[in-house]
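no rush on this but wanted to send it before i forget. theres a chain ive been looking at and ive put its sequence and its fold in token form underneath. please have a look and point out which stretches look like helix strand or loop to you. thanks a lot i owe you, the record is right below:
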Amino acid sequence: MSSETPPTPSRPGLFQILEALAPEELRRDVWAACMTPRWYFGNRSSDTQASRPFWKMDLDDVDAVDRLWRHAKPVCERLTESPLRVVRQYGNGHTYGLGGQPHYDDVRAGTFTLLYYPMPRWEPAWEGETLFFNPAGHVAAGVAIAPNRAVLFDSRMSHSARAPSRDCPELRVTLAFKLERDATS
């Protein structure tokens, strides 16, 4: 990882890796929900033609995923120092050759992304890291995939999914919770 700190314009330093986010039973339930046949192909990181399509699964109103958010919410609210609400929740799936392009999840202040890796197993040689970029477009940080790991970050940070290696026999799955400050709380 670079010595540069990824930019977080609204709250410097909010780039937090969360290990062992969920109890094992909840992680298993979330993984089972991710393995249902609801995936569709054609999602893109950005609207440009250079952005290659990959797999997506809508996860709004999926019980296990809702429970994961309820479990993660207190720590996310503590780290952002504000009440939060979920705007969208979905899964992305990548296979060899299907990495994402650098993009921002949101450009508004007060928005955050919780990115969760639900896989039960992941080998370092399978690659698939999530990369974060500084304003000049250089890699500022990389988060390696580990089962039950999450990263909470300011949604205005440029980032991308790195495709898994040719040796990876699995689908690289991330759950994205798009969050914003909840003004009603």
About this structure: The two ends are 37 Å apart (CA to CA). The beta strands are 15-18, 40-43, 54-58, 84-94, 111-117, 130-133, 139-143, 149-154, 159-161, 172-181. The CA atoms of residues 133 and 139 lie 4 Å apart.
